[in-house]
Amino acid sequence: MDLDALASCFASPACLVTQTTSGLIIGMLLFLVAVGLTLIFGVLKVVNFSHGAFYMFGAYFAMTAYQLTGSFALAMLSGAVGTAILGLIFERAFMSRVYGADVLMQLLVCYAFVLIFDDVVRMIWGPEFKSMGMPAAFQVAPLFIAGGVVPPYYLLLIGVALAAAVVLGLGLARTRIGKVIRAAAHNPGMVSALGINTGLIYGGVFALGGMLAGLAGALAAPVRSLTPGMGFSVLIESFIVTVIGGMGSILGALLGALLIGLIRSFGSLGFPLFTEGLMYLFMVIVLVSRPTGLFGKEVA
Amino acid sequence: MTELQASECARVVKVPRIDARPQRFRDILIALAAFVVLALLPTIFGSKQLLDFVIRCAAYGLFATSLNLLVGYTGMISFGHGMFFGLGAYGFGLMMQKTGVSIPVAFVATLAMTLVVAAVIGAICVRLKEIYFAFVTLAFQMLIHSTILSWQSLTGGDQGLRGGIPRPPFLGIDLSHPLHLYIASCALLVIGLLLMRQIAQSPFGYTLRMIRDNPTRASFIGINVWRAKLVIFVLAALFASTGGMIMALFVSGAYPEFAYWTISGEGIFINMLGGVTTFLGPMVGTVLLLILNDTVTRLTEYHGIVLGIVILFFAIGLRKGLMDFVVEWYGHRRSETGERAP
């Protein structure tokens, strides 16, 4: 425990800015992963335990595309599109077989794929740490805000994630497809009786969730090291985010992700070894006081 | 619920007649026979590897069977049951390293500590249902894991409890001797299984099945669901903790992985593999998983893929565990032949 470091950080604007930005990028990346998770749970009623693998694949796809083409935009695109296709295949071929089955079965199918995907990555890209490196376009002098260091890439990352949040939120609330998705979440039987292909919606939502996780992985690739199994800690953290926010709530995922990001970033100053513990403690406190999360609906 | 509906319920649910006495006698006989067979193994085979394998089976088997009291019997999918395995290993290891008490005292003290911790955590967790219960138990597991990692002065952090666990002889039993450790582990396994079997077959055990099948009805007829769930949560924790203690004795230490969430995941997987509707299903699953792990790890470095495919076979192909499958198939065959008989 190092409470002095935490206190002195709160007294210094420079430190506050640096820590808040790093908390925000952790939070935004977590949000992208968690919102896919919450969407899949909300519509398909499946807890996708293999969601972290899509984050991992997004990062590896982006790295490979960047090494082949040298284009940052293509790297992001291949990360997102590649995982969307992967998500669609995964859902149609395997997850769709266990809908309505025991929660245990669904968890096990996902658990099996966590093991399989990690080994597939190990086979293709090797077991060692990889790094994509910061694209040349972002290798510029950092910004100084109130004395705090803010790399421009961080701003891009936060911007992209925020844009995704807005597009997703508005898309679900306003567009026709969004309404159909929400209807399918509420009453799939009715939606399919109206002649809408629910299988297609389920596949689409899973692909969308996979895409968001893949985009998060691609965005994280320049700033994090890549390793098989990297999806794991992200998965657990995004579970915490969705549970804190309330499973199925997009706004909850945003709030939860920001809270966890800030807890991680400031917690690493005050409690260097217990940073993870702080997150779990926070989750326990939230669940004990509000069993369905901050924005969760009471399950009948 | 109207009176009509209530009587409907009463008509639909078949209440099995519970006459536990003859069964208890049979169970004790089976347990004794199993113990004798296990105890004779070293004289027949005498390979060190086999003894080690059985000890590991005892540790994981107690853990997995106790998890099935929650998952299979009560319908509580705990994703944090491994915390009690870790707690048992660390509690026992620390007690032996720091206090110098005798092994039976440390054993009982660790159980007492597990009881207190499980009662506190359980009181919070069992209020929640289904997936939220799974997550809050997972959170507690990781909280304990983080505590072990960060409390370096006591637990050794990510290095684990090192320097070996002292095993002073007591009552003529010397657990630092491999054969003694083997016999003690077998005894703990058999006694543990026998006790859990008695819990599962008791009226309380049938109350648990009822809570699993219809919690609303259970509370309507006056069962305190929260209390029943808490009691089984604590009891299961005690057996998991015993498994952890066997593991600590076996490896002469305790490591943070013992309290990591993957151990809970493995426990669930073992249950799935063996089957959750038969009492010995988790035991069969334990043996299968350990054999699978040992052979696959020897054959390929990509054992995740192999393990994953096996899980998929059970989850999507069979849709049930091995023992469930066997029992169902056997029951099917018997009813068929029964019909054919004049």
Biggest sheet of chain B: strands, sense, closure?
Answer: none
What percentage of the residues of chain A does DSSP assign to strands (E)? under 5%
What is the count of β-strands of chain A?
Answer: 2
- Could you tell me which chain pair has the largest interface and how many residues each side has? A-B, 41 and 42 residues
Helix content, binned percent of chain A: over 70%
- How far apart the termini of chain A lie comes to 42 Å
Helix fraction bin of chain B: over 70%
Distance between the termini of chain B: 46 Å
Number of helices of chain A: 12
Q: Radius of gyration of chain B in whole Å, from Cα? A: 21 Å
Secondary-structure blueprint:
The complex is a heterodimer of chains A (300) and B (342).
Chain A: H1 3-11, H2 13-44, H3 51-69, H4 72-93, H5 103-125, E1 143-145, E2 148-150, H6 152-174, H7 176-186, H8 188-193, H9 198-220, H10 230-245, H11 250-270, H12 275-289
Helix pairs in contact in A: 1-11, 2-6, 2-9, 2-10, 2-11, 3-4, 3-5, 3-9, 3-10, 4-9, 6-7, 10-11, 10-12, 11-12
Chain B: H1 3-12, H2 20-44, H3 48-74, H4 82-98, H5 103-125, H6 130-150, H7 152-155, H8 178-201, H9 203-213, H10 215-220, H11 225-251, H12 261-274, H13 281-299, H14 303-318, H15 322-340
Helix pairs in contact in B: 2-8, 3-8, 3-11, 3-12, 3-13, 4-5, 4-6, 4-11, 5-11, 8-9, 8-11, 9-11, 12-13
